Amino acid sequence: LLRHFMVFNVPTPTPQTLYQTIDSILQALLVREGGVGLEQTLHNSIVKASCDLLSSLQVVLQQNTVPGRYHYCFNVTTIVNIAKGIQRTSDSMRNSPTMMQLLWLHEAERVVSDAICRPDDTQALTKLLAEITVKYFKELSMYEHAKPYFVTFDEYQDVSRQLHRQGVASGSNSAGLLVQVKPVSNLQDIRQVMVRYCQQMTDEAQKQLNSLLLSDVTLEHILKIHRVITMTRGNMLCVGSHGNNLDLLVNLASFISGMELFTVKSTRPQHFFDQARTAFRVAGSEGRQCVLLINSNIAHEEELMEKLNSALLSGEIPFLFTNDEMEGLLQSLQVVIR
What global pTM score does this model have? Predict the structure, then answer.
């Protein structure tokens, strides 16, 4: 895996360098594949807000040995992930400064808030975003108590006819699923759509969802999960108590997005590797988007955790396939490569 990693001595950026970096990243993401950039004043305000957010996070939410803070690591990648959320918008939505500012706040909350677990830190983030809103997005004061929800799936449609399984095999772009963010005014509209998806999943996938109560909290969890799994190489850690149906929510989000789900529940290494091989084969040689759901049972297996870490960092698991298997996979990709 040495080819995936390099070591650079990168000094702490000056405010001007940080602004130029984030400005370039946002502009590059928005105009990728013929997209339309933002109006210059709006673009500048989002870049300034992003710089302010990152600088403040590195002070207010520093990584330290306090329980619950050991994993904190907010850097330019944090802002890149926010920008990737903004990227998934239509040209018409980009022409609405208010909607784009609200979306920036939404993505900032998701990227940062979903990574912190201490109530005090959540309050600190809420205060910080409120200060940034007043400073850079003053016109959003009217939305303080009526912010829209942002969803990453369309209004109800027959999943069996719109499965996103074109992938490499049919020449779809490398960005993966063609997903656009859309604002929704209230959860009731989302609930009606979700009920229909639940019914279709019960009928077609033979998954029993009778025990799933579509409360406001459940709907918000589904939105969060769907948002992450439809991002290129998106990954997330779902934490909850027994009986909260988190695996069922992942099943539903995967079904809505049209992705095939592979689940690893056993701690037996062979089961882990079998499911990983199948998922990598489906994604790599067949060009279909898929989701790999791994149960927390493997957390006690150091070897499996090391393999999982490798997959998250580099996108591959060393020695997952034998040389003969690799030859077969490469043969199947010859047509696409040509």
Answer: 0.83
